[in-house]
From TrEMBL, chains A, B:
Gene3D superfamilies: 3.40.50.1100
SUPFAM superfamilies named among the record's database cross-references: Tryptophan synthase beta subunit-like PLP-dependent enzymes (SSF53686)
Organism ancestry: Bacteria, Pseudomonadati, Bacteroidota, Cytophagia, Cytophagales
PROSITE patterns in the record: DEHYDRATASE_SER_THR (PS00165)
GO biological process: D-serine biosynthetic process
Keyword Lyase included in the entry's annotation: yes
Protein name stated in the entry: Pyridoxal-phosphate dependent enzyme
Domain of life: Bacteria
Length: 317, 317
């Protein structure tokens, strides 16, 4: 694939201004206990405190606010059963436009409730990818709404990149940044921004070994889709997007893996030592770091905690 | 009881300077979702992020740092199976002096580990109050260590008062402050400071209905000790201290009760909406507020989240 047009540092700064009043500038936390265990100096960017409980609020807001007035009037649409659905419904509500969210009939009630709470219109479909896509196509055709994909879309990636922008503005000496990778929206945005900010910053993706398509794609130099993912990190089940891969293969240093058992240990460490609530996907970067300590020894490392939407009745400890 | 000598605002300011480098100035968080449910504007002072995971770090540090050099050299002692034990061991470690902690043989391993981690010396005893007191007496006699009680001690109360001092410095418009009450160290310190700061600020204690001795004592005008407490709020089982009662009956507006079921609902709300980890005792003030909404309608209310030391394997949801 020829190099697509990537957003510049200036584009990302504009995105930040565009979405500024709709998102939190999330805090950065540290833990001396975790630093001691890790053997490096870790800064945690807390997107679990973000609006809708995840970094997804950034990309959705950016994509919606960039639409022309004409397109805005017809609304936005997506298929998602996760945080992107709520984030898009919220962004649309702020813009005062309709959001059509195609969700599998099997989606958890709490996810549907979140979307409805932001005024989103839910269109149910059979719980398989083909049904999702054909239903979405139908909705778009009927309403003229603009499809905003969850990660394989440059305006979404540009929005997610604002997270790393804030991170480096607040902690300009970071030598390494880790972000989890599912579809690659957050990792892509982080890698783009970091590359633009300072080419010497190393960006690592962190992925569950039970859904390691980004790892395998990165090594193979081509996209290898994920089949039958099996991991507790339920935010990282999807396959890498096309645009996301193009960024990641250029600007990411490596993809590191963590087993579910390592992820659960890291998650517990964050709950116990930092007293914050995160979702399992969020713990994968710390787990991957702790499984590869030598790479980070003595460095100043940034970890993006991607979200905090976890079913408290199903914590793995 | 004749009015004891209470610390002044100036004394509490000095305490804050004394302990400043040993504790965190904890952040204040808000949640628009919780405000909407509560019908008032709530500010949460997050002592769950405090050193040792609880406000107890303040009182213990203040009491230790106020000792004469001669007394310091002989060390400090207490009996406790809770956060005060870890807080005192830590304060002693910082001062470079011994800490003798009498703990019941039945105390949870994790509590013993915390004390040992701060270099405290654990002396085990039978799990009853008499054994704790006689063992402590023996330790104090043998070592010459100074007994630092967990709450019924003015230097400890003065230390806990620094929390409300920071709170009002950061949010000077608070009209009401709520703190949980067990022995009354935190509530006493909060009431003292608030009274000194501005007599118009109303301070409420919040107590589990299954351990409501402070409520009953407050209404009766004399201390009625707690027998057979039965509540999930395991940090609030103890009876009100003597000095604490003297402050509370003078400067606290009222004590509000919350059932365990209300406390669990409030705890879940804080986990889900604020994405932070708190211990059950910590949720009692929000539960009491939600059970008495009319009292707080439209007001600017401060709630002290007292600590975050919870057994994650035993969350009530």
């Amino acid at each position: 694939m020829q190099k697509p047009q990537f957003p510049s540092l200036n584009d990302i700064r504009h995105a930040r201004v565009r979405i500024k009043s709709f998102i939190h500038r999330t805090p950065i936390l540290t833990s001396s206990a975790i630093n001691e265990i890790a053997g490096c100096e870790i800064y945690f960017k807390c997107e679990n405190f973000q609006k809708v409980g995840a970094f997804k609020a950034r990309g959705a807001a950016n994509a919606v606010m960039k639409l022309s007035d004409e397109d805005k009037a017809k609304g936005v649409a997506t298929h998602s059963s996760g945080n992107h659905a709520a984030a898009l419904a919220r962004a649309a509500q702020i813009a005062g436009i309709p959001a059509y969210i195609v969700m599998p009939s099997s989606a958890p009630k709490i996810k549907k409730k979140a979307v409805k709470g932001y005024g989103g219109e839910i269109i149910e479909c059979e719980p398989n990818l083909q049904a999702r896509e054909t239903t979405l196509e139908k909705v778009v055709k009927e309403t003229g709404a603009t499809f905003i994909p969850p990660y394989d879309f440059m305006d979404v990636i540009e929005g997610q990149a604002t997270c790393a922008l804030e991170f480096l503005e607040d902690e300009p000496d970071l030598e390494i940044i880790l972000a989890p990778v599912g579809g690659g929206g957050l990792l892509g945005g982080t890698a783009l921004l970091s590359h633009e900010w300072d080419e010497d910053i190393e960006v690592y993706g962190a992925e569950p070994s039970g859904a390691d398509d980004a790892y395998r794609s990165f090594k193979a130099g081509k996209i290898i889709p994920q089949t039958k993912p099996n991991t507790i990190a339920d935010g990282l089940l999807t396959s890498l997007g096309v645009l996301n891969f193009e960024i990641i293969r250029r600007y990411v240093k490596d993809i590191l893996l963590a087993t579910d058992s390592q992820t659960i240990d890291a998650m517990r460490l964050i709950y116990e030592r930092m007293k914050i609530v995160i979702e399992p996907s969020c713990a994968v970067p710390l787990a991957a770091l702790l499984a590869n300590k030598a790479l980070f020894k003595g460095k100043k490392v940034g970890i993006i905690l991607s979200g905090g939407n976890v079913d408290l009745g199903k914590l793995p400890f």
